């Protein structure tokens, strides 16, 4: 009898091992097959995708365009022949930004690579311009984007300089971050961060979308800037991540809805940007947050703006550009799993 029981247990172990091996083999086949087959179901071939994003001669309207990512984006769009309108609360910052869009500084020894003026010696500077044509229109408007009526009025004013009553491409880049522990921050500060990020984004694009729909502007684009922290969050970002998750939800709803009108929507999910506010964020950031993040692998605003434009050329909806972003975009981040194998299976089925 004991021999029979031992044989039965051995058979069960062998069967379990074979089942596990078969399961992992099936999973591997499914992953490889998906990787090979998915390109066949993309919206269009890559060679045709890149032809879609053509900013030359288009009116690009940028909320938060006076510094950081927004200003770098404005300069690069100007270099591609676009008409550019930038918005910010500060008129002084706008005046400085508009001058930078008009004239850039290039180091004679840099092979034409753009360098920030503060990084150059005066003798090495050669003035050039982002402008590609004398007909390009560059505008700057001081506007509080948390005020919906002011945002709407400013958009219509900006469009009067153009033949169209709506911009061609809208970019929502305004926002900020005040890191800290949830209980250490007053509730009012949480709502303030929501206004800085979600409300400014909403007000930047709302009137523009209404005008695009009314005009029947097929081929228009709406680009919302969120963060990789809209894909996961952790200690220290309770004031910041909720607003970025809200922007993500808005982008997903708009993408679905605006297909009806030929208007495409994109969600940009950048990682760390060495923007003017970065040093202040680092001072406020709790030590445990820094430990979770690990060594910082951020990029300059110029580099991040280039990655956004590459994503638009690919016609991506979720635009990520570094390994963590790619992984988070295709995973559940740090959300706990109920069952590793079953959740992985349902994730693949869902995809």
UniProtKB/TrEMBL annotation:
GO MF annotations, alphabetized: 3-dehydrosphinganine reductase activity
Cite the entry's keywords alphabetically: Endoplasmic reticulum, Lipid metabolism, Membrane, NADP, Oxidoreductase, Sphingolipid metabolism, Transmembrane, Transmembrane helix
Q: Which GO terms describe its cellular component?
A: endoplasmic reticulum membrane
Q: Which InterPro entries match?
A: KDSR-like, NAD(P)-bd_dom_sf, SDR_fam
Cross-referenced Pfam families: adh_short
The catalysed reaction is: sphinganine + NADP(+) = 3-oxosphinganine + NADPH + H(+)
Q: Which SUPFAM superfamilies match?
A: NAD(P)-binding Rossmann-fold domains (SSF51735)
Q: What is its EC number?
A: 1.1.1.102
GO BP term, pick one = sphingolipid biosynthetic process
Cite the annotated pathway.
Answer: Lipid metabolism; sphingolipid metabolism; Sphingolipid metabolism
Where is it localised?
Endoplasmic reticulum
Taxonomically, the superkingdom here is: Eukaryota
Q: Where are the transmembrane segments?
A: 20-42
* Top-level class of the enzyme under EC nomenclature: oxidoreductase
Q: State where it is primarily located.
A: endoplasmic reticulum
Protein function: Catalyzes the reduction of 3'-oxosphinganine (3-ketodihydrosphingosine/KDS) to sphinganine (dihydrosphingosine/DHS), the second step of de novo sphingolipid biosynthesis.
The identity of this protein, by name, is: 3-dehydrosphinganine reductase
